[in-house]
Amino acid sequence: MELVSASPDTAGVRRWARALLPDLREDDLLDVLLVITELASNVFDHARFPARLKLRSTDEPCVVSVIAEDASPVPPQLRPSQPDSVRGRGLVMVNRLAERWGVVQRKVGKGVWAVIPCAVAP
What we know:
Elements: E1 2-3, H1 10-20, H2 26-46, E2 52-58, E3 63-70, H3 90-97, E4 100-105, E5 110-117
Antiparallel strand pairs: 1-2, 2-3, 3-5, 4-5
Helix pairs in contact: 1-2, 2-3
């Protein structure tokens, strides 16, 4: 499942992801949507295009994987947020919500990935 966009439509990204993950419990879905929004926002704010957002999910065990690929070779940096800052908390949230995350350097650009554990709704 893949989304390619050149405009900062994070609401559209969330709708796309929500439609692809209808069986997740609401709490897990909200975590996944927040991670996706943060990774997509980082691409729109700091990276170069072309960019691509990929989403994969498995049922056994329930895991959602997200990767945001872009043409910038500059890796994101996890920094402590400042209490008076209105920005700069995206990777802090990804770090807290994802089971693990990281950066893969590509021939052109990079991929920032996150793995989020989940549960299927009953």
